[in-house]
Write the structure tokens for this entry.
Amino acid sequence: MADRFAKISVPVLANEKVAPEHYVTTLGDGEIGRRTRPGQFYQVRLKGHGAPFLPRPFSIFDWSSDALGEVTGFKILYRVVGRGTAALSMLAPGDEVAVTGPLGNTFSIPEPGKRVILAAGGIGIAPFMAFVRASIDKGVSPKDIELAYGARTRSLVVAADAFAALGVDVGFATDDGTLGMRGTTLDLLRERIGAGDADEVVIYASGPTPMLEAVALLCRERGIAGELTLEARMVCGIAVCNSCAIRVISPEDPGGWEYKLVCRDGPVFSAKSLYVE
Ligand SMILES: Cc1cc2nc3c(=O)[nH]c(=O)nc-3n(C[C@H](O)[C@H](O)[C@H](O)COP(=O)(O)OP(=O)(O)OC[C@H]3O[C@@H](n4cnc5c(N)ncnc54)[C@H](O)[C@@H]3O)c2cc1C
Ligand code: FES
């Protein structure tokens, strides 16, 4: 098996604009694709003049495969927010990027029969397609999976049809009410949970940090199991620079906290471990 921290040159197979500011880039390395589990991420470094020096982290969105179903690579879904993502969005098939990964831990696959609610805020949708595919492969019924997807406005909703095609029950919340309920991912999540039995539900959340903190508190309040995929500024991605440290509740002192590294100990953390001030 390849060194997991090796930086490998990978060709771009496709780069598609899927919504304003949102792109899916397909990268052609089947070996990396096959090794990747849902929730994991890659450090992607662009080559060439004008590209940022530091790599940028992106979750696996999906696998790509050939007509026989063989994995030929992996896809990342991203929103253009700065120099790195802008440069990535301009790549064309045949260009190359340097990839380290897959890195980090993974979402756990839910027990069959549990009610699974995915809470996605904006580009937080990115890691959930791979998660849904892997869960279905492991025997979870798509009928048990719901997606509570919040976005600023209807035009920024991406991949919703692909989730629905897999049999997932997709609900929307938008800030301006142009799709689904007017409100936030958290409002929709609360509505979806309803007054049901906490033991039957498991929540997976991905999105901006304030949303994840609110989901963590909701899970604790209701006694619901939850997993959150966290974002942090990353320099190395391999537990060397400490730039991605976050606070988690200390197991020794429940009122206190300790540091964990998002790149090594995460990016997936349990809702009960996240320290919220
Ligand atoms: C484990 C992990 C997985 C990620 N997966 C995805 C993904 O699948 N799709 C996706 O679109 N994005 C993802 N991100 C965030 C992505 O890495 C950043 O958007 C990207 O690095 C921005 O690079 P840039 O050069 O375009 O922006 P920069 O010029 O570096 O920054 C532009 C703006 O974005 C903010 N920003 C940059 N990086 C982050 C970050 N890590 N967290 C929060 N804010 C940030 C900056 O504060 C600044 O306001 C992930 C981050 C992590 C840590
Ligand atoms: S990104 Fe360097 S330690 Fe996590």
